[in-house]
């Protein structure tokens, strides 16, 4: 089943010479693409939480204002902004309007990118590539989503396209792909709940210890300060997970996906300031991390969730690294079915993966997650005095992505 994706992973995507090996990726060069600021908003539970009435443009405006004040950068020196976002109508217009409303100069252009769950990572990727090419010196990479005000649309294709198996599968609901992975790769409900409990338990512990405060940037929404996640279910136990009914009873031979072992639905935003190392030193900006590279892959749409097992090895191979050379992995928990399979197929210890919980526990605002994982992972590396972060996620329609970063805090 994985022969085609593995073949894809081994194919070279470019003739560019990439840094290979730990010494190379951690080396500091003037033309390195670096992150000088990485923060996220607190997240809100979709339809019920603190951001349920906050639209994407209002959320972005608040994030831009708070970030510019905290990052202490001259808005006149911003060359470009890229916003990863999936579902709001006219996303470019509202993102541009939000930037202007936040006080960003009108000469600063903006773009939006949608690669579903990897949209935030793609914003980082696009910004990094623009900086590396010399077209941009200072850019903002943003991930945002309001699952409350912009729920996932029902994708449709024409009858001639839908008549083919893979095109038909690629527009099916993500819950269906979760059940297909669970059934085909034999991931039983008990295993899914066990991995979900790890996520919930770690997030609860981190929340109670105040760990997330380091990565959250307080924002002001209509006179109210938003600075604490309201998505973490503090009373979750093994028994409470066991008692939940499957939410997709009509899919799969033995439906097993529940509200407790699938990613939470939420609202939120995250932002990275990116530039060259030389410019950061010139402007007196503190380097938080070095951007190393990304990988993007495709897999069979029916088994969308397995894609991290293709994206991660591809990224490691690009940079001459082994899985043991990574200090922390942030692998998105879209569903416990696919997450459990990926963890066990990759052969990486859970001690290194999502040490403070993942999207099952803290929620998955689609466009935000790709940046949120970077923010969360870098803060953890800083606390633990570690270096290398690898993020990854499956992507709707049968794709996957991964990103590699070096902590310098």
TrEMBL record:
Pathway: Lipid metabolism; fatty acid metabolism. Keywords: Acyltransferase, Transferase. One of its GO terms (molecular function) is acetyl-CoA C-acyltransferase activity. The active site is at 117 (acyl-thioester intermediate), 364 (proton acceptor), 394 (proton acceptor). It catalyses: an acyl-CoA + acetyl-CoA = a 3-oxoacyl-CoA + CoA. InterPro entries: Thiolase, Thiolase-like, Thiolase-like_sf_Thiolase, Thiolase_acyl_enz_int_AS, Thiolase_C, Thiolase_N. Signal peptide: none annotated. GO terms for cellular component: peroxisome. It holds the Pfam family Thiolase_C. One of its GO terms (biological process) is phenylacetate catabolic process. Residues 151-167 have a biased composition (Basic and acidic residues). Residues 286-405 form the Thiolase C-terminal domain. The keyword Transferase applies. Residues 147-167 are annotated as: Disordered. Gene3D superfamilies: 3.40.47.10. Residues 33-277 form the Thiolase N-terminal domain. Belongs to the thiolase-like superfamily. Thiolase family. This is 3-ketoacyl-CoA thiolase. It comes from Cylindrobasidium torrendii FP15055 ss-10.
């Amino acid at each position: 089943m994985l022969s085609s994706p593995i073949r894809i992973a081994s194919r070279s995507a470019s003739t560019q010479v990439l840094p290979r090996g730990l010494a190379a990726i951690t080396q500091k060069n003037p033309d390195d693409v670096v992150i000088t600021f990485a923060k996220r908003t607190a997240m809100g539970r979709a339809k019920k939480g603190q951001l349920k009435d906050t639209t994407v443009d209002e959320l972005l405006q608040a994030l831009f204002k708070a970030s510019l004040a905290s990052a202490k950068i001259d808005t006149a020196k911003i060359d470009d902004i890229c916003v990863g976002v999936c579902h709001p109508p006219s996303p470019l217009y509202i993102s541009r309007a939000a930037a202007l409303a936040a006080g960003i100069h009108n000469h600063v252009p903006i773009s939006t990118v949608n690669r579903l769950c990897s949209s935030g990572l793609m914003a980082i990727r696009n910004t990094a590539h623009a900086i590396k090419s010399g077209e941009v010196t200072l850019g903002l990479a943003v991930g945002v989503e309001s699952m409350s005000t912009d729920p996932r649309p029902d994708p449709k294709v024409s009858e001639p396209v839908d008549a083919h198996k893979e095109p038909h599968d690629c527009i099916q609901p993500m819950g269906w792909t979760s059940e297909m992975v669970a059934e085909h790769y034999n991931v039983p409900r008990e295993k899914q709940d066990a991995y979900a409990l790890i996520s919930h338990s770690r997030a609860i512990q981190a929340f109670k210890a105040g760990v997330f405060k380091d990565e959250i940037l307080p924002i002001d929404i209509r006179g109210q300060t938003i600075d604490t996640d309201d998505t973490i279910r503090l009373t979750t136990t093994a028994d409470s997970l066991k008692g939940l009914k499957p939410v997709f009873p009509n899919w799969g031979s033995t439906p097993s996906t529940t509200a407790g072992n699938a990613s939470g639905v939420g609202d939120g935003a995250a932002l990275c300031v990116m530039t060259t190392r030389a410019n950061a030193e010139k402007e007196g900006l503190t380097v938080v991390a070095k951007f190393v590279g990304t990988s993007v892959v495709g897999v069979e749409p029916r088994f969308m969730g397995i894609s991290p097992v293709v994206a991660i090895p591809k990224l490691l191979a690009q940079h001459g690294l082994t899985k043991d050379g990574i200090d922390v992995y942030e692998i998105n928990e879209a569903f416990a079915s696919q997450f459990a399979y990926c963890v066990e197929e990759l052969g990486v210890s859970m001690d290194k993966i999502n040490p403070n919980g993942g999207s099952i526990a803290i929620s998955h605002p689609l466009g935000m997650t790709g940046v949120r994982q970077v923010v969360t992972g870098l803060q953890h590396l800083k606390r633990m005095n570690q270096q290398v972060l690898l993020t990854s996620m499956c992507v709707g329609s049968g794709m996957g992505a991964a990103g590699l970063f070096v902590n310098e805090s």
